[in-house]
Structure formats: structure tokens, C-alpha cells
Amino acid sequence: MQDAVTHIARAGRRFAADMLDMVLPVTCSVCERPVSGAGGLCEACWAELEMISQPVCDAYGTPFVFEEGDGAVSARAIADPPVWNRARGAVLFNDCSQHLVHALKYRDRHEVVRSMARMMVHAGRDVIPEADVIAPVPLHRWRLWSRRYNQAALLAGEIGAIAGVDTMADLVKRLRNTRSQVGLGEGQRSRNVKGAFSVPETRVRDVLGQRVLLVDDVLTSGATANECAGVLKRAGAVHVDVLVFALVSHAG
Ligand SMILES: [Zn+2]
Fold first, then answer.
1. Rounded to the nearest whole angstrom, what is the distance from the C-alpha of residue 107 to the centroid of ligand 1?
2. What three-state secondary structure class fits 138?
3. Averaged pLDDT for residues 97-103
């Protein structure tokens, strides 16, 4: 009798585990091959990620080949200084990081948020402690409604929780539902997002005199982050840093 009870209990647990596997297939978030453990990435995909390590350009966060000293900036930052103060990225934008960002953005693979946020906390270890508030780059409310979540807000919330910094998802508001920046040149990207953001009246007192850390999934031309940093500074922010998961490294 006892044996039967044990057996049934064991079978029940197996069934529950099988059911859980059917509901939550444990596959790599990038290549979808089975992985052991609770989601995340397979070893091959981990190896494909190109982590950014110091030294980096203080303004754009792009890696330097040689040690340039604290606060050194790239030729690009001298020729085209960004509106934000400092940017940091966890990995370079490549096929693998693009897949990972898409998994979070379009395929509801929310289990990647924690690993991505941890990598971002490491990459932003020199800028996060100086932030008073963390804010995600916002989606327009129509896009938020159709996608149901803002991937930048998920990352910002997780980073805030890990680092113990306040996160305000509505510090910056997107006024226009801009077209996707994909396929646009740098000048077109700037025009596409011009005037697309604002700091809502109700949030001005949370920005005035504050140091803001702006969070997004990818930094490409920097047009969106520049526009957000501009509205934050005009609203009285004294300093705006940018922290992203994947950074497109421009030459120079
Ligand atoms: Zn994989």
C-alpha cells in the first residue's frame, strides 16, 4: 500500500514536471535548442555574445583597443558629442545579441530580463551608483497596448531592483508613435524622433536637479537617446547617462 502511494506520488510529480515542460519548454532564448536549467541561453550562444570591457569611450561606451585613461573619449565623441553625458553597453550588437533583444521584445521571452539586467549592471558599475533615478526609453501608448509591455521598462525595473535605485517608468513620455528606426540613415533617425518625447508636467519635480540614468535595449545611432536626454536636461536634469544592453560600435 505504502509502495503504491509512493509510486503514485512519484508518477504524479513526473506528470507535473512533464506538464511544466510542455507549458514552459526549457529552450535557449536565442537559438531555441533545448537547454538544461531554467531557460536563458545555451553555451554556444553565450560564447557568441561579445562582452564590452573597459577601457571604453566615456561618452559613447564603445571599446578602445588601448588604455586611454579615465574619461577619455573617442574621435566620434569629439566630432559629434552626444547630448547625454556617458553611455555604457553590456555587449556589442551582433547576430546573437540582436536575437536576444528580439526574444525579449517580440517573443515574450521574459526569462532573459534578469541575465540581461545583471550584465547591464556590471557594464554600468561606474555610472549606476551616481544615478538618482532610472528611466526607460518609453514606447508610445498604442505600441505599449499592442505589445503589452515595454522591454526597456522591464530592464530598467530589474536594474533598479538589483542596484537599489528608484525606477520611474513614466519619467519620459513618447508623444508620437514614430516609425521604426530600422533602415533609416543617421540624419533620418534624428528627424524621425525630433519632438517625439517630453517630460510630463507631473514628473518635472522628479527630474529637476536630478541625475538620470536612461535605459534602453539597444543604442544604434543614438538619435532616440539624444532626444530623451535633451528633454530631460531641458526639464532640469543635471546629468543624464545612458545604459543599454547592446551597443552598435561605430568606427572611431
Ligand atoms: Zn542557443
1. 15
2. coil
3. 93
